[in-house]
Amino acid sequence: MIRGIKGIKDITPDQMPKWSVVERTAHALAHAFGFQEIRIPVFEKTELFVHSIGGNTDIVEKEMYTFPDKDGTSLTLRPEGTAGVVRAFIERGLKTYQPSRKLYYIGPMFRHERPQAGRLRQFHQFGVEFVGSSEASADVEVITLLWRFFSALELPGLSLELNSLGVLTDRQAYKKDLVSFLKTKSDRLCENCRRRLEANPLRALDCKVPHCREAMNDAPHLTDFLSPTSRDHFDRVLEGLQALAVPYSMNPRLVRGLDYYSMTTFEVSCSALGAQNAIGAGGRYNGLFETLGGVPTPAVGFAIGLDRVIIALPEAILPTPTPWVFIAAFGEKGKPAGLSLLDSLRSMQVKADTDYNASTLKTLLRSADRLEAPYVVIIGDDEVTNHQIILRNMATKEQEFHPLNTASSAILAHLHIR
RNA sequence: GUGGGUGUAGCUCAGUUGGUUAGAGCGCCGGAUUGUGGUUCCGGAGGUCGCGGGUUCAAUUCCCGUCACUCACCCCA
Questions:
Q1: Which terminus of chain A has fewer CB atoms gathered within 10 Å of its CB, N or C?
Q2: C1' nearest to CA of A372: which nucleotide?
Q3: Distances in Å between the alpha carbon of A220 and those of A44, A182, A216, A227?
Q4: A350 and A311 share a domain?
């Protein structure tokens, strides 16, 4: 047997109702907020991700699916969506159409990680990018959309955390202070954090090792190092969220794992999930366009892990299935009559189906039962001779007769009454 | 990449303190007369006990390795 690839799952038909609800909600809300859909390729030149995400991040260092093209150029399956959107934006000159542009995407991303509950090698994200505005209102809008999406899906146990990373000079000042603080605690830090001290001291802030967290308790806060303009921007974001009643809490330790973030960052976690409980996150990335060779353009966005949303999605949110009819046609005359009724119902956009492997009334009804058909049309030779069909309600066992020539419209009316 | 748990029928799992034909529930197939499903009753099919090696008179059971699944670390959405 040839198996699928580790960490890559099929979304089977029984799971599709959940995915449909989630994707419909994403499209509807994004449109309501004025975002337009963009579809970008699932693979790009490797350098795009190296330059945007950052060469010393875990994603780039050990998680990318990278392979050579026939001519030797290094290609990579996208590990996230922002890089591709920004690349398309710059390359296609999307900026020339409007002063600001709001885009969203839905699709698979790829990261070679060890699979775990809520973590797959092919996973799906819904993300938005608000490009061309440095106003705090843009941050507020993006965060609000993020929150409204989860609210619409009635996910339990959510919390939204915010932080500001400031601009580069803010972070540099902070880093100095943090490093000297960490050095005083270095004997109490885990090995990992001691290594981070050199490479990426900010990451030590959200270390999960308990004694490390404790040592970090009185660490300096990045928000205390914000320049007046950074501080002012962040305050406006908070005010804006309060005005729209989006509940949040401050987390001075919230750090993003991608290099392109600056200023506002945020993360939504869901207690209904396991260890991988970050369900949506994002932030501002004012420097990324320049990094990728575009004109400096402010932007803010988020990405939501849809596979995690599906795990946390309550059953109650699923719509009740639309009523339909099973056609139980048998006998020399009944079968062709049933097939033509099947076709006319379908051409009226009424869901109708049958079982070609069943040929007696008994087996047909059993199939109907297994398919959970709410209604069955019984049509055998006797019915054809009498120019009628039997419409059976499977739950109540009630049966009524309808003329054969007007059967499809009678059935249509019947289904709609429900 | 590191660690833990698990691998027995299509599914969920029991079991063999090492010993003849390895079990249950659910599902599946057939039957309980003629054109009425789900319930009930009766019968039936289906397993190289993940794979390879070792110990042993004997291994599905013990040991080693390996692979797969899974959870956690790490990281992230």
A1: N
A2: B38
A3: 39, 10, 9, 15
A4: no
Chain centroid offset of residue A127 CA: 7
Both structure tokens of A72: 């030797």
- Tell me the CATH number at A370: 3.40.50.800
Alpha-carbon distances of A288 from A33, A38, A297, A346, rounded to whole Å: 23, 19, 8, 51
Nucleotide nearest to A267 (CA to C1'): B77
This complex has an ipTM of 0.86
What's the CA–C1' distance between A370 and B63, in Å?
A: 49
Q: Which nucleotide is nearest to A302 (CA to C1')?
A: B77
Q: Is the separation of the CB atoms in A264 and A241 below 8 Å? A: no
Q: Which of A117, A83, A64 is nearest to A273 (CA)?
A: A117
d(CA A33, CA A142): 9
pLDDT at A418: 54
Domain around A352: 325-417
**Paired tokens of A79:** 């590990």
Burial class (CB in 10 A: 0-12, 13-18, 19+), A72: exposed
Q: Which nucleotides of strand B lie under 7 Å from a protein CB? A: 1-3, 28, 34-38, 68-77
CA pair distance A301, A280, nearest whole angstrom: 11
**Do A304 and A336 reside in the same domain of the chain?**
no
User: What's the per-residue H, E or C state across A269-291?
Assistant: EECCCCCCCEEEEEEECCCHHHH
Tell me, yes or no, whether A335 and A404 share the same domain: yes
Residue ranges in chain A modelled with pLDDT below 50: none
DSSP secondary structure string for all residues of A362-388: HHHHHHHHHTT-SEEEEE-HHHHHTTE
